[in-house]
Write a structure and sequence with these properties.
This protein is α+β, with helices and mostly antiparallel strands. The chain has 2 domains: 167 residues, Creatinase/prolidase N-terminal domain (Creatine Amidinohydrolase, Chain A, domain 1, 3-Layer(aba) Sandwich), CATH 3.40.350; 222 residues, Creatinase/methionine aminopeptidase superfamily (Creatine Amidinohydrolase). The protein is built from 11 helices and 18 strands. A 6-stranded mixed β-sheet has the order 4-3-2-1-5-6. Strands 7, 8, 9, 10 and 18 form a 5-stranded mixed β-sheet that branches.
């Protein structure tokens, strides 16, 4: 996985910070290069950090519990070091030959100060990065809500400012291998949907179809992220978990699904027909897709997010849904399901090449259902490229 070092250094310099401190699972993964299981399992409690110098964003200093130190073996080879905290024990007895990984963990363990706290370790890493006494941007979305005053007490004379917006802005433009990873996650998701559709039959339940999707993506090596499935008018309650509703001939089915593959996410949406398309749904789908397509056609470097939003919404209205309203028409994707930018009516963000988006113009109508289509696009020098391979025309499944 690559770090966009040029962009990181430039944005950190523009923000006037000497270093940033990553504190969330996703930001630590991006700058550290390895997945911290403890932060995934206990996100409200597990502290772990990466201190990222502005002059060398790929040489971050990892701050983690001694029990998680071995995970750093899979991190970026350019990492600048590791500082540990907490309590954990690994035994070494005479007469056993250690391989290089074991020797590295032994060295880290030998210099570990048992019982030290996370803030003390983080302060040491900030000093090692040469940022003490300067300005350090700290990811305020981490689990320690007392982190700012604790760091101010540990490093008087250092200015601490929030970092989550800066970190997400750095990640907004993807490196080529990141784009490949998003597409790889998308391909797994698409196959999961094909497998789910192959299981359609009269009487099958939403929950059974969801399980088919989950089995497919797990078999492909991914972690299920989410899989929203609703039959018929249940689309308007699309956030309600799939249940025991049975599929009937003539139903349509809504899917909004995503996975986590090696730290990168996918997100795709489709509405499929089981048998002949519902004539009441077809014009809604046509209007929704028209708005989505208008947004995609306008997405190129230099375009402004709010202009894309306004165009998409107005197109849906003009195409046949005069009551259409929406809070956003798309969002970035990468190590988070919702990366920046988000295409909202107030966003002044200017689109750049190598941003990756999920573009969507869903419509929810109680008592009827609605319409849904969502696709992954990559911004190139001249415009947006749709990388989804599933059909964007009406998908009609045989009964």
């Amino acid at each position: 996985m690559s770090i966009n070092t040029e962009r990181a250094s430039r944005l950190m310099a523009e923000a006037g910070v000497d270093a940033v401190v990553a504190a969330t699972l996703e930001n630590n993964f991006y700058f550290g290069g390895f997945w911290i299981d403890g932060q995934e399992m206990f996100p409200l409690d597990t502290e772990s950090y990466t201190v990222v110098p502005a002059t060398a964003p790929d040489a971050g200093i990892v701050v983690c519990s001694i029990g998680s130190a071995d995970l750093a073996l899979g991190g970026h080879p350019t990492l600048g070091g590791i500082v540990t905290f907490g309590t954990f024990f690994r035994d070494v007895l005479p007469g056993y030959e250690l391989d290089s990984d074991e020797e590295w963990v032994k060295e880290v363990t030998d210099r570990h100060q048992t019982g030290r706290d996370a803030v003390s370790a983080l302060a040491e890493a900030i000093q090692q990065a040469g940022a003490a006494g300067g300005t350090v941007a700290v990811d305020e979305r981490g689990p320690n809500r007392n982190l700012f005053p604790a760091l101010e007490a540990a490093l008087p004379g250092t200015k601490f400012v929030p970092a989550s917006g800066l970190l997400r802005a750095i990640r907004a433009v993807k490196m080529p291998d990141e784009i490949d990873k998003v597409i790889a996650a998308l391909r797994v998701t698409e196959q999961g949907l094909r497998d789910a559709w192959a299981a359609f039959k009269v009487g099958v339940t939403e929950l059974e179809i969801q399980r088919t999707f989950f089995r497919s993506v797990v078999a492909a090596g991914a972690q299920p992220g989410f899989c929203l499935i609703r039959f018929g008018k249940g689309l308007a309650l699309g956030q309600v978990p799939p249940g025991q509703r049975q599929l009937r001939y003539g139903d349509f089915a809504f899917f909004d699904c995503g996975v986590n593959l090696h730290g990168y996410k996918s997100d795709i949406g489709r509405l499929v027909y089981f048998g002949e398309p519902d004539p009441s749904i077809e014009p809604l789908m046509a209007a929704s897709k028209a708005g989505q397509q208008a947004a995609i056609d306008a997405m190129k470097p230099g375009a402004v997010a709010k202009d894309i939003f306004n165009l998409a919404v107005q197109t849906v209205i003009d195409a046949g849904i005069p009551s259409y309203k929406r809070q956003h028409v798309g969002h970035g994707i990468g190590v988070e399901y919702y990366d920046l930018p988000v295409l909202t009516p107030s966003s002044e963000t200017v689109l750049e090449a190598d941003m990756v988006f999920e573009v969507e113009t869903p419509y929810y109508r109680l008592g009827v259902g609605g319409a849904f289509i969502e696709d992954t696009v990559v911004i190139g020098p001249d415009g947006a490229r749709i990388v989804t391979e599933l059909p964007r025309e009406p998908i009609i499944l045989p009964a």
